[in-house]
Write a structure and sequence with these properties.
It contains four helices and no strands. 74% of the residues lie in helices and 0% in strands.
Length: 73
């Protein structure tokens, strides 16, 4: 099986760029993908929460922040 190399910084920056443009579905997708590479990297959870708030999904925002607490403990 071939090994894939993924740099999380690409996805945090891509998510931030999409978010600034108001393209929240694409931003959320980038943040989720980057988070799934290494869930212990907490930067993604803040971006996810901010985008969920921007789309008025407060429940998902709360879950993202609780997940951040769980992985940072």
């Amino acid at each position: 099986m071939a090994q894939r190399w993924v740099f999380q910084d690409v996805y945090i920056n891509l998510g931030a760029a999409y978010s600034r443009l108001g393209r929240y579905p694409e931003s959320l997708q980038a943040y989720r993908y980057g988070r799934n590479v290494n869930p212990a990297t907490t930067d993604f959870y803040d971006g996810l929460a901010a985008d969920y708030v921007a789309t008025t999904d407060m429940g998902a925002a709360a879950v993202a922040l609780l997940e951040k607490l769980a992985v940072s403990a």
